[in-house]
Amino acid sequence: MPPHPIHLIGVPMDSGKKRRGCLMGPDAYRTAGLAEALRDLGHEVRDDGNVSPAPFTDGTAQHLHALNETVAWTQALSRVAQTACATALPIFMGGDHALALGTVHGVAAHAAAVDRPLFVLWLDAHTDYHTPQSTASGNLHGTPMGYLTGRAGFDAFPPVPHPIPHDRIAMLGLRSVDQHERAALEKTDVTYIDMRHIDEHGIAKPLSAFLDRVTAANGLLHVSLDVDFLDPSIAPAVGTTVPGGATIREGHLVMEMICDSGLLTSLDLVELNPFLDERGRTAQAMVDLTASAFGRRVFDRPTRAY
After folding, report:
1. Which of 14, 96, 271, 288 is catalytic?
2. Residue 128 annotated as catalytic
3. Cα 50 vs. chain centroid, distance in angstroms?
4. Least crowded by CB within 10 Å, which of 1, 146, 198, 255?
């Protein structure tokens, strides 16, 4: 990836689930040297500080955790994302995955404004395709994909004027999908690649096919990277650990392929809970993966003619 202006945007959002700690995520990324790693690769990096939610009052939703606060974050993040995409490549340092309710909402508005299709690569153990009615836990970090694709039931949230078409979404690394989500997703054109598929066929081929589709459509690419995409043995600092995740080698391969494609236009880093980390190793792993997405290599691999 050639040198690029990058804006780091902290999102100390902790309302998407009941387990606390993700609000410390942005400072963990700063401490782990995210800005320095990107500058060392030649990029112009600016830290825009932390976003705050729009004003809200505490509510008493029947079974949803922190509904009003999450709506307030969604409103604020949508505005910030749309503005940031116009001048730089934003990296949203979360914060739980409910932040994507707002970041992708804003990125989609930017894509519509520049008349280019938006594609979303969801790197996660979960599909996050619930609605407020279908989630049994009441945790709204399990609903962003439902909201952003225009599913019904999100009346409390801002309207979605630019829903993401299902055939522009790829979910990689799945291994914990609720029955309701699975039944709903099977009726769509979402590309969903679970860990069995990756074990049997590898991760490069389905990712390459998706990136080729983005290229053919002249699309923008938003990547949402959840810590639990990785196996908890290498990334323990997440409240939704699911064994059997991507290895560190698979993670770096994904990010290097994203870099090689030149398609990345915005990035979420989510669900880092430093309270659960071990000597900062999860934060460092996420910084290293991000660096791979922006050009870090062991060796350059020029194309050679033989």
Report:
1. 271
2. yes
3. 17
4. 1
